[in-house]
């Protein structure tokens, strides 16, 4: 029985792993687990092509009892010959057979589009069939978009509602935040999403002004904090360290007592 990524107690910490070989993946995952990671975000794009086999993926996925989310975005894969979304889909399905908990499917899979969200009925139908296939094999689906632009609350809500309608178990949007004013709008957005979304969501803010939201957003309703185990020359520099996120979640008094929630409803 594979562990659930979507049903973890929220907010949780997902360690982003971007190594090039199975042994390095496993070592970083083990270090991240001891730092406080609850789940792992496995970037297939960083794994060298020779290790993209059922045996090597199984080694990586089965090295922990924690859930694994598989990601293979377009545009920066090092794999020679992997150029199509169909090939990315096959990499996801192989990982599911190896025991992955969930797959991150792009909102514009099968139809590269602005804001990473296709509106074409044919592409949407293919996405729904892919989601059904992944579900039939026992794994979960996160649908995601990286928009790379600032978004209003209304824009984010419409975007994630569209992803939600395609059958995903969890939805994600990563938008830019370039000023304090946009950061305040992002906080408002997360609160609105908590009220309106039917499935769990991940709301991420990219950029230097968005770093605070990476910690606060999950306290307002976003499902998780994506973290790195350590900073590396080629790695992500805005995602917090696992141990820093663990310390914040464990030591900041931010959960509202049930009595206060009941008073607010009276």
UniProtKB/TrEMBL annotation:
It comes from the Bacteria. The lineage of its organism: Bacteria, Bacillati, Bacillota, Clostridia, Candidatus Alectryocaccomicrobium. It comes from Candidatus Alectryocaccomicrobium excrementavium. GO terms for biological process: chorismate biosynthetic process; shikimate metabolic process. This is Type I 3-dehydroquinate dehydratase. One of its GO terms (molecular function) is 3-dehydroquinate dehydratase activity. InterPro entries: Aldolase_TIM, DHquinase_I, Shikimate_DH_fam.
């Amino acid at each position: 029985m594979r562990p659930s990524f979507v049903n973890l107690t929220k907010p949780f910490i997902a360690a982003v792993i971007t190594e090039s070989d199975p042994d390095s993946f496993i070592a970083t995952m083990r270090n991240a687990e001891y730092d406080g990671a609850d789940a792992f975000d496995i970037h297939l794009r960083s794994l060298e092509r020779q290790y993209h086999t059922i045996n090597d993926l199984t080694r990586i996925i089965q090295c922990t009892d924690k859930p694994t989310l598989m990601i293979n975005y377009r545009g920066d894969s090092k794999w020679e010959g992997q150029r199509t979304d169909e090939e990315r889909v096959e990499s996801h399905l192989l990982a599911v057979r190896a025991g992955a908990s969930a797959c991150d499917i792009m909102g514009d899979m099968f139809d590269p589009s602005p804001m990473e969200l296709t509106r074409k009925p044919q592409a949407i139908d293919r996405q729904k069939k892919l989601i059904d296939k992944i579900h039939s094999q026992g794994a979960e689906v996160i649908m995601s978009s990286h928009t790379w632009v600032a978004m209003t609350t209304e824009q984010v809500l419409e975007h994630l509602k569209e992803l939600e309608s395609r059958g995903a178990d969890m939805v994600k949007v990563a938008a830019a935040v370039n000023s304090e004013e946009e950061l305040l709008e992002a906080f408002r957005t997360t609160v609105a999403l908590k009220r309106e979304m039917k499935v769990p969501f991940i709301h991420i803010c990219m950029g230097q002004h968005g770093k605070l939201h990476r910690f606060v957003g999950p306290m307002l309703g976003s499902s998780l904090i994506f973290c790195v185990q350590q900073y590396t020359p080629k790695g992500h520099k805005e995602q917090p360290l696992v141990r820093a996120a663990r310390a914040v979640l464990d030591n900041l008094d931010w959960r509202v007592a049930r009595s206060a929630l009941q008073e607010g409803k009276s």
